Amino acid sequence: MLASIYLPDTIPFAQSFTAGNVFARRSIGRPWSTPRVRDDFGRASAWRLGEFQVQDRLRGFLFAGATNRARLNLQPNIVIRSGALLSMSRKREHERALFTAFLDLAPEFAGERLDVWQQPEDESDFPDIIARSITGRKIGVELGEWINEDEMQAAKQKERREEAFLEAIGEQGPNPTQHIRFVWLHPKANARIAPAARAAFRDQLFTCIFECDQRWPNERFWKRGHQLLGDELAAYPLLAKYLNAIKLWPADGEKWQHNWIAFPLRVDTFDGETMWKPLREIVAQKIGHYAASSMGFDHLSLIVIYNQAWIYNSPAEMPLHSFDDAAAELRREIGDNHGAFDRVFLYIALEPGRVLRVS
Q: According to the model, what pLDDT value does residue 88 have?
């Protein structure tokens, strides 16, 4: 069994690495700015992926976040005919961006280029993309996202809880302490700070941190940091009410200057089945949904997308198991039983992007 460790979102850069049987990922820091992009109708829109707002530094990792007007115009023969973008659900925005990026990598995925494409007006209709090729063939594209739902829901629940605490804390400002590098809060399960208590919670938190910073030089056992809990937290009633503990990390000559109040690591165990099973399931679900009916399309493709899983899930690619391995295993799994789909693709929607044909 491997261990998947996700370092706190407040680390202001992105990096992933492996060490023995431990995987660690450092993700983009908060707060997240939302870049404004324009659709082909000239309207401004904020692209969001899942619960995360896309910022410029994230574009190297979430390929769909790189979609902008210039990107859409890379293929001037393609007209995107969709309803009012501002009324689109976030899921449709997400799918629209991903499919646009996919076309940059595989413009002839159906055997030829597309002339026009659109999303159905009714979100419940399928397939997700309806297109016409340059020779007039009717092309349908079904999109599916490769994610582990259980892990994703747990990660989002933790994220929402932490965002609520950060909202209560408000603007942190530069780290004013002398001896503390950064602070971890350990919220109680299902803790929700009442709006009326937010100001007092913030005051007690900063008072606690400043008092500990003043004590630091005289505390001989704090050289490797200190964790406040129990009686120490009891001196600050609101902290004791909403937190299990507060961990203070020693500066050792270096401090986080921004977003220095954060949360502990999210740790998950995983093995090969953690991500391989949901990949099998999403493909089987899509094939079963269409059965053997091509619904009047001359060509029907299934595109399984790996995108949000990079943030919310255990890693799908490790030294002993690559995306190419996943595509090969999926190819063996479905064989010739790909239902109504003429072609099946695995789209790795991470910069620079990869398209692997499965069938």
A: 56
Q: pTM of the predicted model, to two decimals? A: 0.66
Question: For residues 29 and 260, what is the distance between their CA atoms, to the nearest angstrom?
Answer: 10
Domain spans of the chain, in order of start: 2-150+269-357, 174-257
Which pair of structure tokens corresponds to residue 355? Answer: 């398209």
Whole-number Å distance between alpha carbons of 69 and 2: 42
Structure token digits, residue 47? 């692209």
- Please report the DSSP string for 115-152 in residue order: EEEE--SSTTSSSSEEEEETT--EEEEEEEE---HHHH
Q: Which residues contact 101 (CB under 8 A, 6 or more apart)?
A: 63, 64, 66, 67, 71, 349, 353
Please give the Cα distance from 185 to 194 (Å, whole number). Answer: 17
**Cβ 319 vs Cβ 18: under 8 Å:** yes
Three-state DSSP class for residue 196: helix
Residues 240-291 pLDDT 10s: 999 999 999 999 889 999 999 999 877 767 777 889 999 999 999 999 988 7
Q: Alpha-carbon torsion 46, 50, 55, 59, what sign?
A: negative
For residue range 124-160, what is the model confidence (pLDDT) as tens digits?
A: 788 999 999 999 999 999 999 999 999 998 888 888 9
Q: Which residues contact 14 (CB under 8 A, 6 or more apart)?
A: 26, 27, 28, 57, 58, 60, 61
* SS3 at position 319: coil
Between CA 330 and CA 338 the distance in angstroms is 11
- With a cut of 60, say whether residue 327 has pLDDT above it: yes
d(CA 114, CA 148): 32
Percentage of the chain beyond pLDDT 70 is 74
